[in-house]
Write a structure and sequence with these properties.
By secondary structure, this protein is α/β, with parallel strands linked by helices. It is built from seven helices and ten strands. It binds adenosine-5'-triphosphate and magnesium ion. The site of magnesium ion has 3 residues, from α1.
């Protein structure tokens, strides 16, 4: 195995069973993502993009095949082992922001650090403030998500995604609910994370936001129909190559 592989799918299949209907959401997909890549996944609705991201993000298990994260087979891991990897290695951004309504902006961003015993309370506080400063939301620490615009909520979600210094950020249609100005800001924030060495895998319908990627994958009917590699790679790949 290539030591730079973060994500390795080997014939990953995901079947959803609803009543007596079986759907092959992912069909024997082989895919590797290396550190320092910026991968965009596009394709028609129902093609399996979100399913791929869910399995990749350890939010859902595959039905068959093997998934190695940083070289370790996660297919048979326990829920707590998976949660630990998810918490320390991955950041998530969703179309619908997915902030917790009942807690403040500050507390939302602090969530991924909550169970991190490798970081002191003082450093956690500093990281949350720095993350919110980085996305231009440091003036809204005490607000509740509902008191923010959609674009502001997504900026907070991006801060939450990177506050724990993950290896990879997984984003599913992060601009899907945003006006074009807010969408641009969110894409710039993701680009900034990429420039600082974070690997990115993003699902998007919007061709405007595929130009920053180092690889574009087209998914159709649960399979990878085509992929296009581009250069240059990000800093992390250059650093470890
Ligand atoms: N929980 C589920 N139960 C049953 N079928 C599901 C479930 N989730 C997804 N599917 C089916 O799996 C297939 C792939 O869905 P998925 O959400 O991955 O597509 P997508 O490419 O993300 O689509 P979109 O662009 O609309 O978000 C679809 O046929 C969908 O109906
Ligand atoms: Mg989807």
């Amino acid at each position: 195995m290539n030591g730079n592989n973060l994500i390795q799918f080997e014939k990953v299949t995901k079947i959803y069973q609803a009543g007596d209907v079986e759907t092959f959401a992912i069909h024997e997909v082989d895919l590797q993502i290396k550190r320092g890549e910026y991968v965009v996944i596009s394709g028609p609705s129902g093609g399996g993009k979100s399913s791929i991201l869910s399995v990749m993000g350890l939010l859902d298990k595959c039905t068959s095949g093997r998934y190695l994260f940083k070289g370790s087979d996660v297919t048979g891991m326990s829920r707590s082992e998976l949660a630990k990897i998810r918490n320390t290695e991955m950041g998530f951004v969703f179309q619908s922001f997915n902030l917790i309504d009942t807690i403040s902006v500050y507390d939302n961003v602090a969530l991924p650090l909550r169970y991190r015993d490798d970081i002191s309370a003082k450093e956690k506080d500093q990281r949350v403030k720095d993350a919110l400063l980085n996305v231009g939301m440091d003036h809204r620490l005490k607000h509740l998500p509902a008191q923010l615009s959609g674009g502001q909520q997504q900026r907070v979600a991006v801060a939450r995604a990177f506050v724990g210094s993950p290896s990879i950020i997984l984003a599913d249609e992060p601009t899907g609910n945003l006006d074009s100005k807010s969408a641009e800001i969110v894409m710039e924030l993701l680009q900034k994370q990429f420039d600082s060495g974070v690997t990115i895998c993003m699902v998007t319908h919007d061709p405007r936001y595929t130009t920053d990627a180092t690889r574009a994958i087209h998914v159709f009917d649960g399979s990878i129909q085509s992929e296009e590699f581009r250069t240059p790679m990000g800093k992390a790949e250059i650093a470890t190559a």
